């Protein structure tokens, strides 16, 4: 059976308009960040010094309420999380999140949460979204009109239980992967010491001493985007945790010109994010370079002298405390983050013997091999 969202929820409203952060403490208040990573984050709420809940009785969250982001960047618009009350807690529903109360004669909140995370629902959100320069939004009226597939209550429970088991398995695998990532960081410290104080006395140099080529990516290449599989267009979201990830990749049919030649990556190129989330790093491997890949303007391409320094080692070094502190201090603007070429060239690095760098990278490959069975 298919019915509209309006028929499944007897209450769909925005939260209380409370100015947060002026006075600390008191009853916590939800905000957009509370739903980060598709979970209810109690450590990402606001405060306004409210201690008496009587004035906000209508806005106190109740177990099974669904919170949904209706003003956000397009990627996170429609993000929905079900609230599970913990013992004796009191939380105020704040602005910029909708609260949906399910008619439990028709729909289980647990089932609704999974439906709202489905690709089907996300397609409807794209249709009703009203885009502006920096964010998108949708109206409650348009949300209410979205059709919702609704099996009977028994089937809803079966679907929820199945998806919940899958989520638990994914969560367990993610925990195992995090442990391997911690092992990698521990290995770096064990081999090279604390990068901030350099207790092993490795030589210190500027990154520019090892750079053969440095550039940033192209602007205005949306006209070259294609939907079918083709060459790759790498952006910040593809550079994460010392890796180049292709989970959400844009395909492109690059032009045959000097700009394309300049921004096309080669195996061993180090990529660094130079706007927004500064200092993300990753190294291009043979597979990506063989497929053909280009970078956008938010990434810098650093081609190093691999006879003298290992790009993978530098990638991991730059994501240690020593690297992160430098990126923070070299930020060109406190409001809109950015790095220029001089800032990249002037990065301080410690340089152990190349043989030791290579040994570290070999160990990293060994650890990564252990990740593949977990991902299967």
Automatic annotation (TrEMBL):
Pfam families noted in UniProt: Methylase_S (PF01420)
GO MF annotations, alphabetized: DNA binding; endonuclease activity
Keywords: DNA-binding, Endonuclease, Hydrolase, Nuclease, Restriction system
One Gene Ontology term from the biological process aspect of the record: DNA restriction-modification system
Domain Type I restriction modification DNA specificity: 24-180, 200-359
Family: Belongs to the type-I restriction system S methylase family.
Organism encoding this protein: Anaerovibrio slackiae
Superkingdom, natural source: Bacteria
Protein name: Type I restriction endonuclease subunit S
